[in-house]
Amino acid sequence: MKAEYDFSKGKRGAVVNDTGKSRITIFLDNDILNEFKQRAEQTGKGYQTLINDTLRADLKDSAAPLTVRTLRKVLREELANA
Q1: What is the structure's pLDDT at 21?
Q2: How many angstroms separate the Cα of 80 from the Cα of each of 24, 29, 66, 70?
Q3: Residue 46 and residue 53 in contact, taking contact as beta carbons nearer than 8 Å
Q4: Rounded to an integer, what distance in angstroms lies between the CA atom of residue 60 and that of residue 62?
Q5: Which is more confidently placed, 19 or 29?
Q6: Which residues contact 50 (CB under 8 A, 6 or more apart)?
Q7: HEC profile for the chain?
Q8: N or C, fewer C-beta in 10 Å, the chain?
């Protein structure tokens, strides 16, 4: 160990580089979490990656314009359930 260290070129802030991801705390239902963990074992991907992919796909789908085909599908499902 040195007797003295030079921190004149040191920078304040996070030590880890920003990877475009944020650490958060989230509560999920146990059955949902277990399902993603099972799928993770089957696919070889991490369960958090699968959750992220699912959320991304849902956001992409919800941003897509409503098509006649989608509308007809939804109407058929609703009429069948009525």
Answers
A1: 87
A2: 40, 29, 20, 15
A3: no
A4: 6
A5: 29
A6: 36, 39, 40, 43
A7: CCCCCCCCCCCCCCCCCCCCCCCCCCCCCHHHHHHHHHHHHHHCCCHHHHHHHHHHHHHHHHHCCCCHHHHHHHHHHHHHHC
A8: N
The contacts of residue 46 (CB under 8 Å, 6+ apart) are 40
Q: What are phi and psi of 57, to 5 degrees?
A: -65, -40
C-alpha 53/C-alpha 63 separation (Å) is 15
Give pLDDT tens digits for 40-65: 999 999 999 999 999 999 888 777 78
- Residue pair 37/47 in contact (Cβ under 8 Å)? The answer is yes
Single-letter residue type at 10: G
